[in-house]
Amino acid sequence: METTPAPSTVDPSRTLLLVDDDDTLRERLARALAKRGYAVTSAGSVAEGIAVARSQPPRFAVCDLRLADGNGLDVVAAIRETNPEARIIMLTGYGNIATAVAAVKAGALDYLAKPADADDIHAALQASGDERPEPPERPMSADRVRWEHINRVYELCERNVSETARRLNMHRRTLQRILAKHSPR
């Protein structure tokens, strides 16, 4: 658990919990959000995130959906228990409708696909309930969406190629070729 020093003008109502297991991304976002006036506390796991949420209920939170030790929705639930008014943004590298719906049902305000920058996160945190978010400037390509979906199903099948190919109704070798490639832009 890390606390990023913020400017001395930080309003106590601008506390932010940042939960992500990618150390580089977490540190970069923590610095960028601190520059925007948030008092950032960061955590690298579900367990740390829940502990911080219970001991220091944040006003804002940014949480990764998939963490090494579990699901970020557990952190959202802990934040909602301690501060029902908290504004929570979910981040994920696996952007799809099912996980977006689950995040919103759990209490997240918005759902952003990685890589989201600090400006996107700040805008989502500060948006009023009636405002519709701006469409993304660089949406994912159709090839990227397909690749994300295939990898999500692959992970849900516990990295079993044969089961994934069966569920996606594709040939196993075709799936193996897709999985061996880098993600499209």
Summarize the structure.
This protein has 185 residues and is an alpha/beta fold. It contains eight helices and eight strands.
How far apart are the termini?
A: 33 Å
Give the overall average pLDDT.
Answer: 81
Strand order of the largest sheet: 1-3-2-4-7-8
Give the biggest beta sheet. Answer: 6 strands, mixed
**Strand proportion:** 15-25%
N-to-C order of helices and strands:
EEHEHEEEHEHEHHHH
- The name of the CATH architecture of the largest domain is 3-Layer(aba) Sandwich
Q: What is the CATH topology classification name of the largest domain?
A: Rossmann fold
Structural class from helices and strands? alpha/beta
Fourth-tier CATH superfamily name of the largest domain: Response regulator
- Indicate the overall shape: elongated
**Helical coverage, percent range:** 40-55%
Q: What topology emerges from the helices and strands here?
A:
Layout: E1 2-3, E2 15-19, H1 23-35, E3 39-43, H2 46-55, E4 60-64, E5 66-67, E6 70-71, H3 73-82, E7 87-92, H4 97-106, E8 110-113, H5 118-126, H6 142-156, H7 161-168, H8 172-180
Parallel strand pairs: 2-3, 2-4, 4-7, 7-8
Antiparallel strand pairs: 1-3, 5-6
Helix pairs in contact: 2-3, 6-7
Describe what you observe in this structure:
- The chain starts with a strand and ends in a 5-residue tail after the last helix.
- Helix 2 (about 45-55) runs parallel beside helix 3 (about 75-80) and helix 6 packs across helix 7 (about 160-170).
- The strands form 2 sheets. It has a 6-stranded mixed beta sheet with strand order 1-3-2-4-7-8, sandwiched between helices. The chain has a two-stranded antiparallel ribbon with strand order 5-6.
- The protein folds into 2 domains: about 1-125, Response regulator (Rossmann fold, 3-Layer(aba) Sandwich); about 140-180, Homeodomain-like (Arc Repressor Mutant, subunit A), CATH 1.10.10.
- It has helices spanning about 25-35, 45-55, 75-80, 95-105, 120-125, 140-155, 160-170, 170-180; strands at about 1-5, 15-20, 40-45, 60-65, 65, 70, 85-90, 110-115.
- It contains 8 helices and 8 strands, in the order E-E-H-E-H-E-E-E-H-E-H-E-H-H-H-H.
- The chain is of the alpha/beta class and about 180 residues long.
- It is elongated, with a radius of gyration of 18 Å.
- InterPro entries: ActR_PrrA_rreg, CheY-like_superfamily, Sig_transdc_resp-reg_receiver, WalR-like.
- This is Two-component system response regulator.
- Pfam families: Response_reg (PF00072).
- Keywords: DNA-binding, Phosphoprotein.
